[in-house]
Amino acid sequence: MVKLAKYAKPFIMPLIVAIALLFVQAMTDLALPDYMSNIVNKGIQQNGIENAVPSAITQSKMNKLTLFMSENDKKEVIDNYTLINKDSSDYEKYVKDYPQLEKESVYVLKDISKSEIDKLNPTIGKAFLTVSGVDKMKSEAKNGKINFNGQEIPSNTDLFALLGKLSEEQRTKVSEQANKKFEELGDSMIVQAAIAPIKDEYKALGVNTDKLQSSYIKRTGVTMLGISLIGAVCTILVGFLGAKIAAGLSRNLRRDVFTKVESFSNTEFDKFSTASLITRTTNDITQIQMVINMSVRMVFYAPIMGVGGILRALQKSHSMSWIIAVAVIALLGLILIVFSIALPKFKAIQKLIDRLNLVTRENLSGMMVIRAFSTQKFEEQRFDKANKDLTGTNLFVNRVMVSMMPIMMLIMNGITLLIVWVGAHQVAQSSMQVGDMMAFMQYAMQIIFSFLMLSMMFILIPRASVAADRVAEVLAVQPVIVDKKDSKHFEKEIQGTIEFKNVSFRYPGAEEDVIKDLNFKALPGQTTAIIGSTGAGKTTLINLVPRFYDVTDGQILIDGIDIREVPQKELRDKIGYVPQKGSLFSGTIESNLKYADENSSEENIRRAAEIAQAIEFISERPEGFETAISQGGTNVSGGQKQRLSIARALVKRPEIYIFDDSFSALDFKTDAALRRALKKNTGSSTVLLVAQRISTIMNAEQIIVLDEGKIVGVGTHKELIKNCATYQEIASSQLSKEELA
Ligand code: M5T
Ligand code: MG
Q: Distance of CA 487 to CAs 11, 482, 491, 500, Å?
């Protein structure tokens, strides 16, 4: 996984933007429960009155309130209010809001900050509570008498005037008596308790208190809506960025893997199976893409959300923080268990996909053989096994994952229950507000969800890391056949002399050399034929020339330059190669012939087709050169395919021709015609020609007889027939007595 980190580099910028957006999104998500708790606490329970500092207080009320404040508090309160009366310049402005102004002067709150309001809250709140407590005494009068400070006084006494005459000490005593039950509550409870008298005060000012409430709820609601909208926009943008990053990154990965695989020599192909290479470029990279897309959204969001949620929840209630701890521990335990069970299986899954791919590929490409041998049953079983293995493992992993969900839900619901249980008790004891409990619950859910997301990541990331390792493995391969840094170059006009010097070759991992100590020279303008029984090493030998493999020992020289010294492209540009098993690409005949040289002229293509004896069957087709060739060239016969392969090499007009048993599928007449035409047209080129038929090579300037990787005879047909036993053997099996003589 780390090995692929450099692929993230081009996407750093969008990633940073995405993280910033996620941060905003998390902040909006975390802010919402707080607003909800405000709606419950302030909007509903406090009638939309946010705090105990009213926006205006009548002068008469202020006089009563200040009776129960210390000199300092009194000064502070009065300083924060402006007294407005009929003569004030702002009278017109305020009389609309507070109609009571018409009758008496009103203290209007100055524009002060929230922290200052928080500071005034308990002072004014307590004063309101005391004043309403004193008022209550009056309403609780019995027999026209009030119990005031232990004395019976007539109920029509102006208690506040009386109080005004008392010393500050005595007044404090009264207020202490009135506030006793609120003293132990926190500031927020004092505010909540003071709401009723404050609401009365607003009424006295002539303010519509119902409107106050609904406008508070509306205001908060609209704010919440705005915040949600911001969150939604962030979510969409992050989704967009995530998809962009993931798709871009996997595009680059696929491109690099493909380029890498193109540079592979057969040695590397033998190491990875074709099926595995396909799975790696498709399924594995898709896996990575999916996980990147999801993790851009989750990996960064979950921790911000989790930590933010915990902080916010603690802010709402310290006493219930242990519930969060319980939830986190339970979730971590669950994730750990699931993680340890499922992880080892992910590696297995990718391997099983490889296997399934291999079986499918073999089945598709070998369909004819399978049918011919009636082994469908066997193949079905083989496929079935691969399929079942994959299904089984997939099911197992999914079952583990799925079982996690209900347990998660159980934990979540248990936690909710616990919060309601504990919270309800605290609400009953007035040590918590209902809205705070609800917000706490939402924060708890957000914390749990962030853990849920993290756990998803724990499951997805290992899977992606398995995939990433498999892709990195391909990318890390250093092909054995590479261009030298200070490479040599051929002369402009190369001759094309091929020289094998003590060449030995062994397939990677094999125990024995296939080619043993070969020495020969193939000259320009001549045909060098190679003949030998099957498995003698003919294909192996000629495959060394275009460097499909490098020699194990010795060297191959072209015009005196070791072929390992020149760039692969330069070397291969000089060679026209016709493989033993002709292969064509999907397209048309023309596109296949132009494969050798896309700028080749019409005339040249026609010439190549004529030499290759292909023109006849091409012109028989109504579309001629435009005839479609299906995938793998399955809609032409074996012989036609060979002739097109030959024509393709001829289009190139190279200095060196290599024909690997390329005439095997031709009838004798076509074979002879083709060879004649070739002889005429290959001119000064060097021709290496592998054949099984003596008749094909009889006229070659030089024939090399190969047996078990060793040269057992070199010479012309005439020479060999006299002095090479192996050649005689081959010849006598193919030619009649007269022909031999
Ligand atoms: C020569 C072995 C093969 C054989 C010997 C292509 C290839 C061959 N071999 C490998 O181990 N790995 C390979 O990828 O090498 O094989 P050849 O050179 O293909 O023989 P040939 O061209 O002379 O035979 P044929 O049948 O084409 O006339 O032992 O196992
Ligand atoms: Mg061969």
A: 36, 11, 13, 20
For position 182, what pLDDT does the model report? 65
* Ligand 1, atom 6: closest residue by C-alpha: 540
3-state class (DSSP) for residue 519:
strand
Is-contact 367 418, C-beta < 8 A? Answer: no
Which ligand 1 atom sits nearest the alpha carbon of residue 709?
A: 1
Q: Are residues 677 and 713 in the same domain?
A: yes
> Which atom of ligand 1 approaches the CA of 510 most closely?
11
Tokens of residue 346, six digits:
């992910």
What is d(CA 332, CA 320) in angstroms, rounded to the nearest whole number?
Answer: 19
Neighbours of ion ligand 2 (CB under 5 A): 539, 580
Of the candidates 653, 674, 698, which is a domain's last residue?
Answer: 653
SS3 197: helix
Q: Would 90 be classed as within a structural domain?
A: yes
What spacing in Å lies between the alpha carbon of 707 and ligand 1's midpoint?
Answer: 12
Out of 207, 227, 244, a domain closes at 207
Q: Quickly state the pLDDT bin for 741 (edges 50, 70, 90).
A: low
Domain of 308 in residue numbering reads as 2-36+218-476
Among the residue ranges 169-173, 427-431, 563-567, the one predicted with the least confidence is 169-173
Instruction: Give yes or no: residues 450 and 421 share one domain.
Output: yes
Task: Give the model confidence (pLDDT) of 245-257 as tens digits.
Answer: 999 999 999 999 9
Q: Per-residue pLDDT for 475 more than 70? A: yes
CA of 580 to the centre of ligand 1 (A): 11
If you measure from the C-alpha of residue 539 to the centroid of ligand 1, how many angstroms do you get, rounded to a whole number? 6
How far, in Å, is the centroid of ligand 2 from the Cα of 678? 21
Which atom from ligand 1 is nearest to the alpha carbon of 537? 18
Question: Does residue 621 sit in the same domain as residue 643?
Answer: yes
Confidence of residue 191 (pLDDT cuts 50, 70, 90): confident
Nearest alpha carbon to residue 418 among 335, 334, 310, 326: 326
Residue nearest to atom 3 of ligand 1 (CA): 535
Centroid of ligand 2 to alpha carbon of 323 (angstroms) = 75
- Residues 270-293 have a mean pLDDT of 87
**Tokens linked to 347:** 């590696």
What is the pLDDT at residue 50?
A: 84
Phi, psi of 109 (to 5 degrees): -65, 135
Q: Are residues 627 and 728 in the same domain?
A: no
Share of the chain above pLDDT 70, in %: 97
Tell me the CA–centroid distance for residue 507 and ligand 2, in Å.
15
End-to-end CA distance of the chain: 71
Residues 325 and 310: their CA atoms lie apart, in Å, by 9
Ligand 1 probe mutation, 269, 514, 706, most atoms within 8 A of CB: 514
pLDDT digits (tens, 9 = 90+) for 300-314: 899 999 999 988 888
- Does 421 lie in the same domain as 310? yes
From the CA of 580, how far away is ligand 2's center (Å)? 6
pLDDT-derived band at 210, boundaries 50, 70, 90: confident
In this prediction, residue 93 has a pLDDT band, given cuts at 50, 70 and 90, of confident
**Helices first, then strands: H and E counts in the chain:** 28, 17
Which atom belonging to ligand 1 lies closest to the Cα atom of 543? Answer: 18
When mean pLDDT is compared over 82-91, 455-464, 684-693, the highest value belongs to: 684-693
Assess if residue 484 is contained within a domain: no
If one compares 169 and 410, the residue with the highest pLDDT of the two is: 410
| DSSP one-letter code for 54 | -
Ligand 1 binding residues, C-beta < 6 A = 507, 510, 514, 532, 534-540, 580, 661
Same domain, 562 and 623: no
pTM score, whole prediction = 0.72
Answer yes or no: do 358 and 287 share one domain.
yes
Average pLDDT of the chain?
Answer: 87
Q: Which atom of ligand 1 is nearest to the CA of 706?
A: 23
d(CA 141, CA 133): 13
